[in-house]
Amino acid sequence: MIIAAFTKDPNSTIDFAIDWNQFLVNDTVTGSSWEIPAAFTLQSEGVTSNVTRAFLTGGVAGTDYTITNRITTPGGRIEDRSVLVQVRQL
Question: DSSP code of 20?
């Protein structure tokens, strides 16, 4: 499920965040992984208070990509959310 769309310059390093609080009820994020297209480099990632974050650099101008975050919870949930990243020369 794509939940948001962002525009990114191919030379920028920016973070993308997903706030899982709106999707989780009485549960917490204990694991997070990102599915990132090969055109990007994942600089860092983390989880704070059910918000997952990925810092990305790269991408080809004029191309749209989907990045996906998969989380796990101690309650047994495994869930994916995706973000559309439109790379444009800004």
Answer: G
Cα gap 47→56, rounded to integer Å: 15
Per-residue pLDDT tens digits of the chain, which is 90 residues long: 788 899 999 999 999 999 999 888 889 999 999 999 999 999 999 999 999 999 999 999 999 999 999 999 998 899 999 999 999 998
83 CB-near residues (< 8 Å, 6+ apart): 2, 3, 4, 5, 6, 16, 18, 66, 67, 68, 69
* The residue to which tokens 């997952």 are assigned: 52
Q: Enumerate domains of the chain plus CATH numbers.
A: 2-87 (2.60.40.10)
